[in-house]
Protein 1
Amino acid sequence: MQKTTTEVWDRILKYIADNLAAQTYRTWFEPIVPVNLQDDILTIQVPSQFYCEWIEEHYIHLLRSALRKEIGPNARLEYQILVDKKKGAAPYVMRVPTVDKQSVANPEMKVPIGIMHGPGGATVYSFPGINKVRVESNLSPSYTFDNFVEGECNRLARSAGYAIAQNPGGTSFNPLFIYGATGLGKTHLANAIGVKIKENFPDHTVLYIRAERFINQFVEAIKKDGMKDFMIFYQNLDVLIVDDVQEFSGKEKTQDVFFNIFNHLHLEGKQIILTSDTPPTELKGMEERLLSRFKWGLSADLSLPDLETRMAIIRKKLYYDGIELDDEIIEYIAFSITTSVRELEGAIVTLTAQNILNKKEITLDVAKKLIDKFVKNTAREISIEYIQKVVCDYYGITVDLMKSKTRRREVVQTRQIIMYFAKQYTNCSLASIGQMCGNKDHATVLHACKTVKNLLETDKTIRSQLEEIDKKFRIHN
Ligand code: ADP
Ligand code: MG
């Protein structure tokens, strides 16, 4: 019996260790001694009442799922607390019922979790029901699904987001990890999901927070001895949206605390939505355990909108601003500005300001002048489309052929050269470069970049060809 108890406890600990920050695990779980396992009741000994309370408050969900996994659905936990040792009092026992199905379905019934009886039978502690506090969502009402234009560039992320809004926490997209370069709509989309959830489920507590703000809150909480409140606040959310999680990079303590919050919410079936400027696989300075969790649900990228989508976005913005422009002008803007939606908006603002200030109709000529000036003034990134066109022209093949499945040597090489330049000159992720070059994955792009680098070192002809192509990009810049 003793052996099985230890074995079972060891397996439970392993599960817990995998779900907690190392420091937390050492502090709260290593000192626990397994005492007995009988009739699905596991008795463990903890050093103090405070210990017991803390574990109950912070790790009960984790413990519960570990118990169920290792012992079975009827698993129960009892604590022995070493109190009043000096006075020779017997350790007393607290029983923690496992949640039944009903209380899982009804979050209001979660608490109180347990009641502890002191040696004299008096209740010494009961877990207070945490009342749902009103949480200010921080959502911006102007970023919605309605004004988020759909296109190939955002289809996956958008539809996953929409599905989540119908059933937060209930889809396999948990977390939803939205990534893409700056100005492509991550904040807009994440916010739109939050707004939709609030529309569909007014009672859900939704929080939108920028990662930077989260870090500051955490630092404040430590300073002001408010960690407990901080954790309670976050662990009670129904939906947590963290914008720009790449900001957590290199911040170990923040990652630890976020890791705990993430696990807690995820175990509870609460929805987590994250945005980042890089895919989880390319995030630097991030704990592996956290990265692996980011990949649990769905990672969806936002890429540069194609011409048609850019035009649709311009039309929508103009419509909201109550301004009309000729199609020719809209086309010209969409053709000229290929970097991000944010710049597209900047150009529209420039144009419409002109219209309002001068009370003049905007003609194509005026628009061209303004837009050209705008494009020159903004540090311009070369688009993948442009790179594709230049390289394909140079080698005399069509862009369509380059994107096709053919394995002809010269086509494969052209494709690899495009990938190489795209990595060098754009902010696109490896995944989105691959996607735009015939639906290849990020590993293929990585391989292509290595191959081309090798060729540059070993093959003189290729080197001079690439130098020539490179000039076009530099002039363009
Ligand atoms: P990111 O967070 O990725 O840097 P934002 O969400 O701040 O980008 O988007 C930049 C601007 O572009 C915002 O004003 C946003 O409304 C707009 N935008 C981005 N994508 C779209 C889209 N698909 N439809 C309409 N507007 C968009
Ligand atoms: Mg943003």
Protein 2
Amino acid sequence: MTIYDLHCHSTASDGVLSPRDLVRRAKEHGVDVLSLTDHDELSGQAEAAEAASEFGLRLINGVEISVTWGNVTLHVVGLNVDPVDPVLLHGLARNRGGRRERARRIGDELAKIGIAGAFEGACALAENQDLISRTHFARFMIESGVSKNMKSVFKHFLVKGKPGYVSHEWASLENALTWIHAAGGVAVLAHPGRYQIGSEKMRLLLSEFKYLGGSGIEVVTGSHTAEQVPQYAALAVEFDLMASIGSDFHAPGEGGRELGRLTALPERCIPIWQAWN
Ligand code: AMP
Ligand code: MN
Ligand code: MN
Ligand code: MN
């Protein structure tokens, strides 16, 4: 059986392993086909591709694009994208553009409740200074003893309604899909079970995503519970979308899913990789 893991992060975004170390770890965990999907960033792809040939696994060039849909932030994974496509690169650069200013504002919000130096602390933990994410703030807050782990940070801080949250306008869903398609890729809605929207709005999202040319949704992901897997498998079938699978691995021992440690897709799903082989 071929082991697929089509969603993970390196130091090019908010992961802690370099692309090379990530690919090596994926191989050690039995992954046969890996996609590195850094947030709004393709700069890790070349190193990952080199490592994939060195360690002997197949790399699918990927990216995870931040999207604003109404008042909801969504993540859309692009798979099999050309990592040097100018339309995609330009769009991603635009999406990254506001991140530093946003990070400053997050730092200011945290300072207001007595957490000092968070902006500088987050930057010091990020390799890519164009890509300061909430994960870097979370790591800083754990290191400085504010919170005990990731789960606790994202329960009490950095999310809507809690200190350290700053609203931000990302790419539109239409633009994200246009960029992915321009680069020859397929679009996959990441971890649908994580969005705090009701089932009616989820259906609206899936029909709009399909209408815009979206190809699939993540059914098996580190973000889904065992109960959510069959629910999203059913939605994939209903909306004629293929199914993807990804750990969303960021760092060893940080509480997220390990590379390659995923259950198989439910039988009735059409795997996103069906057309690749
Ligand atoms: P950003 O793109 O800066 O908004 O940061 C989003 C990142 O924060 C996600 O990709 C995750 O790595 C992390 N994140 C968000 N919510 C959670 C959560 N509940 N638990 C752990 N990590 C989270
Ligand atoms: Mn992340
Ligand atoms: Mn995500
Ligand atoms: Mn991710």
Protein 3
Amino acid sequence: MSFRSVQGMFDILPVQTKGEYPAAIREWQRLERAFRSSAELYGYTEIRTPLIEHTKLFVRSIGDTTDVVEKEMYSFERHRDQLCLRPEGTASAARAYVQHSVQAQEPVSRWYYLGPMFRAERAQRGRYRQFYQAGCEIFGDPGPACDAELIEMLVSLFEGLGISDVTVHLNSLGSAGTRERYRDALLAYLTPHKDSLSEDSQRRLEKNPLRVLDSKAPEDQALVADAPKLLDVLSDDDREHFETLQRYLDAYGVRYELDPTLVRGLDYYTRTLFELKSNSGDLGAQNTLCGGGRYDNMIKSLGGADVPAIGFAMGLERILLALGEQATEKTDSVFIAPLGKDAVSEALVLGRELRQAGIPTEVDGRGNSMKSMLRRANHLGSRLVLILGDNEIERGVVQLKDFQSSDGPDSGSGGKAQSDVPRSDIVAQVSLLLSNGGSMSSAGAAT
Ligand code: AMP
């Protein structure tokens, strides 16, 4: 008998696993660090909520005609409670916000979260059954300044990661009154065509006609193309909100495309709605990196005060796919390659000195050839390799190779610099190189 992980759910290991799932753990950690530091730079603080919630939380917040709630929940009964694995993070954050009366303690809350979500979808590249989302939520700020700031943060984050072709798609769904008027207009337009709609859409037409706009069925899309546009029926307040948001984005120099067909799969959105897409790397058809919007009615509908809110969630797998090869980066670690028996004891001692200075270090004490040691250093992704042979020990030096530097005597060969550094200086020089991301020449290595 052989055991395998559940379909659509994957292991993330220090080595790259076979198959469609992206990246080894180091790339995940680098992305998570980048997300956390960017969120914290913009004033968000982390929250952690349970993986399991009451099913009715999602029925109430996401909506019972959405794909997520209708088809994709991992639900089960335990102790007579109807429970499920969370399919997304916003409803849990809103539940926690209401449950702990956070609005009574502070007027505005900025939260972020990061963790696994579960949806029983048809698994394919970029679409998994357990997947990771990182997201931010702002409670208590009606925008539109914070809407613009949220979008700008995402654009800057993706730029910083090196995904250069990100496009922002923007729409406004209006507030509740506008939605109501639009619903009537849409119903009046779609009802005469009811028989030509897909089965799913016919069913949803009664309960929630807006969901028809989101349909992927070709027979629906043709009809949707000529449907009345929500942007044409925005109230004055909604229009003002939307236009001011665009002005702020213009001031940032953030480019965006207005996309009136953008509805997104969850029912809770109001006013601002956005998605960020890319065609970089190995993304393929699932090219939405991130989606979000305003959900001004959710806190109230969950039993809280009338608190406006906005947020987004991004799929970490999609971002790793977009990064492709770029995701692999040298780590700020040192690999010591000793040649010869005496060199091994020297290497162990040097390894201890480097670790005492807080530098992650691997000592290869296997007694293998230089070629095999360098292969291992490369596999580990170590940025610096220190070579200690009889010759170096005799001369009181350590040979240092920097696999990130473009300086140095043999910079032409694969972007690595190499030099002899006095044994007594090596810890200080390695620290300097790693701490300021500097090059070997700026660290003043003796060449
Ligand atoms: P949503 O929660 O549906 O608004 O999705 C927000 C983001 O999460 C999407 O833009 C994707 O990047 C990601 N995402 C959603 N569902 C999946 C999935 N099944 N597998 C991988 N990523 C997903």
Protein 4
Amino acid sequence: MGENGTVWLPEGASALTPEWDGLFYFVYYVSLIIFVGVVGAMIYFAFVYRRRKPEERPAFVKDNKMIEMASVVIPTILVLIVFTWGFKTYVRMNVAPPDAYQIQVRAQQWSWTFEYPNGAQSVGEVHVPVDRPVQMVMSSADVIHSFFVPAFRVKMDVLPNRYTSVWFHATKTGEYQIFCTEYCGTAHSNMLAKVIVEPEADFQKWLQESQSTDLTPVERGEQLYKQQTCNACHSTDGSPGVGPTFKGLFGKERPLEGGGTVVADENYIRESILDPTAKVAQGFNPIMPASFGSLPPEDIDALVAFIKSLSE
Ligand code: CUA
């Protein structure tokens, strides 16, 4: 985005940009045409049919069926076009392709931290490969923030008590601005970061160089699984225990005690760690201690990553 701002959308750099911009400008120009038409007709009529003499009386106006029909049918068609187009685009924007490369995003007052599947971390900039779908799985350590990349046309709230996500498919290499667009305190307007879109080879090279000697999130999750003695109740090989096994748990639809089902996604697993009795899996007793509620967000992310890794 230019330093001086503009009334037009910034140059797009993601696969969904043409569709998104098409819809935006369709609404924009249709509104413009209707605005000019309505205001123009108003000014024209006010001038042509103005009262010229004090005794002048307007003639009786009879209704015109054609005009009445048109003023109902045309707006209805326009609204249906915008709805259909908008709904399709919305679904495409919200459902990440299953093979998307996943990056964990942690927001806090007032910075962005990014963690990659190999354990590499970066602050204030996120490296992504070009021509490949990338999904950001986001959470906040404190208040509500919002992740906004104008060039990719993606914006999503980042919340302290659940995961949200956005995905994009960058089509051009380069640097793009990330803004926080939810007022989050004193340094809100400085809560900036950059997306650095690189060719796959450069990205892989950067990823290797940035990998710390630390464990990957999955390895850290496995370590926590033992340290926090999750293994006392939850097996990883499918064998029954006091609690449900973690093997093949992720992504499944799970029946609950007291009826209903839930899909075991990131948010369900997170909730089950922080508030174990909220949704109890069918056939189990609500006896998991609530003490895991004090685990830091990085540990929750790692445990989720570990449970996810057992889904295959
Ligand atoms: Cu974070 Cu505004």
